[in-house]
Amino acid sequence: MKQLAIHCGPTGGTFGCERGDLPAPPAVFGWLLFAASIVGLAVGIHLLITGRPLVRFGWLKQISTTRAGRLLGLGLVLDSLAGVVIAQVINLLSQHIEPPRWSGLVVIPLVPVAALQWLAFRIDRRPESAPQ
Length: 132
Prior knowledge:
Layout: E1 7-11, E2 14-18, H1 27-50, H2 66-94, H3 110-123
Antiparallel strand pairs: 1-2
Helix pairs in contact: 1-2, 2-3
């Protein structure tokens, strides 16, 4: 755990201590998020083109139609683009540079993306096996 940088000394004609800032995030977090976003973008583009996931495990086993795969691919592409912007903000913060104010708007496309992904899994599920 890192300690905050607390500065004590004369402040405004009196003597006091002011709290320091949190340390900057390591730059490696930005690079890891950027790499994950690029991989997600490639997988999302593949899903948009073909409509079929590369591998089927976990929840991806429920995707039964190409329409659901393309909806999921669109959501993954939008998530990846938001991830790239978030990685850029983390990189700027690690250099102690204030990111632009518009970078806070990156969370807006994440809400419809979550709705697209929910729609892909809700509408196009593979029918369950009938009990015998």
